[in-house]
Design brief:
Strand content: 35-45%
Low-confidence stretches: none
Radius of gyration: 13 Å
Largest sheet: 4 strands, antiparallel
Mean pLDDT: 91
Helix content: under 10%
Distance between the termini: 31 Å
Structural class: mainly beta
Strand order of the largest sheet: 4-5-6-7
Shape: globular
Order of helices and strands: EEEEEEE
Length: about 80
């Protein structure tokens, strides 16, 4: 069984659960930016993408580096 990825909507982070150890790694954006992550999906390159409820941002997380990038969508009040 592999790793489980999830979005902790109320917690404001993307998480990775190791089912063998029960360890949870939390991935958060840089300080000063709060997120409400939702709907994670991996692309063909292994990058995790997610939406942010109640914001105008989408997020990108590189599981290899842990780097998270948030991008504002061009449509006002889009709520992706």
């Amino acid at each position: 069984m592999g790793t489980f990825w999830f979005t902790a909507i109320a917690g404001g982070y993307v998480g990775k659960l190791d089912p063998k150890t029960g360890e949870i790694a939390e991935y958060r954006p840089d300080k000063g930016m709060e997120i409400d992550p939702h709907t994670p999906v991996f692309d063909h390159d292994g990058i995790l993408w997610f939406t942010n409820e109640e914001t105008n941002y989408i997020g990108r997380l590189d599981p290899k580096t842990g780097k998270m990038v948030l991008t504002k969508v061009p449509t006002a009040h889009a709520l992706p």
